[in-house]
Amino acid sequence: MRRLHNLDLNLLKALHALLEERNVTRAAARLSLTQPAVSGMLARLRQYFDDPLLVRTAQGMMPTSRAEALAEPLARIIGQIETLVQPLEFSPAELEAEFKIGTTDNSFRTVGIPFAAQLQSLAPHTRVAFFKLRREEMEEKLAKGRLDAAIAAHPAAPDNLRHKKLYHEHFICALREHHPVLQQEWTLDTFCRQTFALGSFYGGSFSGAIDRELAKLGRSRRVALSVQNFALIPELLRQSDLLAVVPSRLVQPGNRLATLPLPFPSAGYDKLLLWHERTHFDPVQQWMRGVLEGAVQREAT
DNA sequence: CAGTTGGTGAGGAACTTGTT
DNA sequence: AACAAGTTCCTCACCAACTG
Q1: What is the pLDDT of residue A216?
Q2: Which terminal Cβ of chain A has fewer Cβ within 10 Å, N or C?
Q3: Pick the CATH number of A171-266 from 3.40.350.10, 3.90.1150.10, 3.40.190.10, 3.40.50.150
Q4: pTM
Q5: How far is CA A24 from CA A43, A73, A106, in A?
Q6: What span, in angstroms and rounded, lies between the C-alpha atoms of A54 and A67?
Q7: Residue A298 in contact with residue A118, Cβ under 8 Å?
């Protein structure tokens, strides 16, 4: 006689791990079980749901549409249960944790540095790692826990992630002190005659958001230099006659640069902190996000 | 061909259920 | 309470399919 197994929490945890890893061996390692054990659990899940759930293909274990539909709610539920089981109270001073933050642009200066400093003083036993992050990878890495949170400019943010605005940023034009153009009338024509440096996070690009906005006005500018490391731009400007359109926060009081407003309207952007549903209720993660947010606001004042 | 991956069957520990 | 039988799910050993 065919009998349905009891669907217990361990089976759901296994299904969650299987759906994320798409590989029985890796799911087993994650669950601290052996591969045959998880294989057996998958068999029971298949019997329970009366669906193959994951089918073996050349690309790995691919979920069926039934399994696909289960993935998202399951991730949310498992995340909530993990939170439920965790101790509610924790002491930051004793907290031993490692945080992984991804950024899709150069936010280390405005977010990373104040956050790291704040974290060290509040929770000296924690560590934080910053990662370069492509927009396409963001959701997957947050969902799988390869990252705890991400920092990105709106509208790069995927819809189905939780997010919070950290601050609004606008662009300014930066150049060295005593640059000859400072003697000229600052118009769009003057702007377009200059030679620029540009920060390109992924590298190799000579055209960015500013060039798209210029194109809308039927104008263009010459970008002669593209660098991946935004932090180098102030030094670069000091030692050349290049100009750069940069986020206003990149120019600090003390780094001997002149600034000019953009001679055309530019919307700027919101800088967002993003995280996945599965860490939304986690008290340690909530606390970490609060520290990050607070560090950024402290910096702004 | 070796390495990796998932599956199967045997055997056993832990637990539940039924009977006395 | 005590015991036996049944159930569940683990590990171990091994097999088959696939990949580079």
Answers
A1: 92
A2: N
A3: 3.40.190.10
A4: 0.64
A5: 11, 21, 37
A6: 7
A7: yes
- Nearest-CA residue to the C1' of C18? A58
CATH architecture of A97-167+270-295: 3-Layer(aba) Sandwich (3.40)
Nucleotides of B under 7 A from a protein CB: 4-9
Of all nucleotides in the shown strands, which has a C1' nearest the CA of A1? C7
| Residue range(s) of every CATH 3.40.190.10 domain in chain A | 97-167+270-295, 171-266
What would the pLDDT profile of A46-98 be if each residue is shown by its tens digit?
777 777 777 766 666 777 777 778 888 888 777 777 666 565 567 788 888 89
Protein-to-nucleotide distance from the CA of A6 to the C1' of C6, whole angstroms: 16
How many Å from the CA of A26 to C1' of B18?
A: 41
